[in-house]
Amino acid sequence: MSIQARRRDAGQRRRGGVMSANLIERIRTAENLPSLPAVAMQILALTRDESVSADSIAAVLQNDPALTARLLKVVNSSMFGIARKVTSVRQAVVLLGLRGVKVLALGFSLTDALNGGAGGGFDYTSFWRRSLTTATAARQLGRCVAASQADEAFVAGLLSEIGTLAAYRCAADVYAPVLKEAQASSQPLCALERQRLGCDHAELGRELLNHWELPVALCEAVGAHHKDELPAVEPQTRKLCALVMAAAGICDAFCGAQGASTLPQAQDQCRRWTGISSSDMEDVLKSLDEHVQETAHMLNVQVGSTLSYAQLQAEASQQMAKLTLEAELDRAASQRQAEDAVRHAERLEREKEAIWELASIDSLTSLANRATLDRRLEEEFHRARRAGSRVGLILLDIDHFKVFNDTHGHLAGDAQLRSLSACVKAAVGATGLVARYGGEEFAVVVPGEPPDVLDRLAEELRRRIENIVLLHEGRELRVTSSFGTACVDGVDLGVGPSLLLRLADEAMYRAKRHGRNRVAGFAPSDHVAAASR
């Protein structure tokens, strides 16, 4: 990282630190935030004393008839599963215990204090949906792994989002733009808060609850609910933090913008932090939506449309199917590209071969052309020098071919050249290379064979050519050819393609001088004479 980048990051951290400190102070000193009701404060004070009697707590609760009625309603609901009807506050206190009464009274009081305030640009429905989903999930998880902390986990979950409401009410000028950006972005709200403000709503909520002098464990659980690792606090507080952090991950899956895609990670974190079994977690997720709606009704808050576990699974299946389809389309596209690349390479190779063939083949006779003959002779001599073998060559020339053309026309001459070429090529086969040397002259390269084999092949070609009958314009046309053969040792000093061609050419013209339509091979004297020229 450059010095300028490090300085810029350091500056952003300093500004973020200053902004977060200013924001926390604005929340602490704000006059438009609710305070805890007197009854809730008295309950908190009483329950700090573990020896306080149920009668003392009941007496305080009865000072708030509305709170008493709601407390009894909750105690008698299916959430608590109490078999017999509870009709008095004292009974409720005895059955719930000090901790249960404390957290429920606190939860109802805070819900009353924070509920309402519709309008003004803050989404209260979303706020309560997230808060109750986290609270309900925390309570259900607690009942599976830490029953003594289940109710306290509920209140901590209920308070988990309070930082967003406090920041909006007390510092809308800096916080509203962050909320707006989060709504338009796939980035998590807490990440944007840390970037723009230097802290997130979990930290703001913890500071506010500390200011209200709520129990330390509640404050720490609220402050940790968006962390990636459990905080280093005392064991009981750490257990409560684990429940709320796991519940917050579940809430992100049910209420977050990314939805079902975050569920596997939330389940993994939940098992890692709380130790819950897979079957218990499945039960928690299946019943979550029903408990959220029931709790919202009892607390008299609006949570809007909620998502069931079945719907979440369906969404996850759709996302998985979409990802699978996209992956398959990508794979198919990659395969098509690879196949296209192979086809393109094959097409280029075919075109290259076609071009090479055009450059290597005589167009009239379809035999190798003179350039191909020269290359083949060089290759054969190179092999012969390495292997200590021979290179043989047959040259043939059609006898009196100019007269043939003048008499029968060039079309007949071309047809005769094609017939002769096919005949020679068929006779030679894989033994050697047949090439058009020029005009009516042809060459046959025969590697590795002695002179007698070369002479026999030439004689066979001579007989076949004189027996060719060309039908042209109702007439039978024939030609003969004169042959010269030459065979040299590729390791002899001074021997190469040009000398071999010269020897074969001398022999061919000797055959012409001795009456044509015959085969002549070179003599040692020819070799010496040719080499001296």
- How does the overall form come out from the CA principal axes? rod-shaped
Our count of helices gives 22
Name of the CATH homologous superfamily of the largest domain: Hypothetical protein af1432
In what range is the share of β-strand residues? 5-15%
**C-alpha Rg, in Å?**
50 Å
CATH topology of the largest domain: Hypothetical protein af1432
H/E series: HHHHHHHHHHHHHHHHHEHHEEHEEEHEH
Q: State the strand order across the main sheet.
A: 2-3-1-6-7
- Average pLDDT metric: 82
Quickly give the structural class: alpha+beta
Terminus-to-terminus distance: 79 Å
| Text of the CATH class of the largest domain | Mainly Alpha
Low-confidence stretches: 1-16, 524-533
- Percent helix range: 55-70%
What is the domain total for the residues?
Answer: 4
Largest sheet: 5 strands, mixed
Instruction: Count the E strands.
Output: 7
Known CATH architecture of the largest domain: Orthogonal Bundle
Characterization of this structure:
The protein has four domains: 3-31 and 115-307, Hypothetical protein af1432 (Orthogonal Bundle); 36-99, no CATH class; 319-360; 370-532, Alpha-Beta Plaits (2-Layer Sandwich), CATH 3.30.70.270. Mean pLDDT is 82; it is low at 1-16 and 524-533. The chain is rod-shaped, with a radius of gyration of 50 Å. 67% of the residues lie in helices and 8% in strands. It has helices at residues 3-28, 38-47, 54-61, 65-75, 89-114, 124-145, 150-158, 162-170, 172-184, 189-197, 201-211, 216-224, 235-255, 263-274, 278-299, 309-360, 370-387, 401-408, 410-428, 451-466, 497-513, 524-532; strands at residues 390-398, 433-438, 441-447, 470-472, 475-477, 481-489, 519-521. With 533 residues, it is α+β, with helices and mostly antiparallel strands.
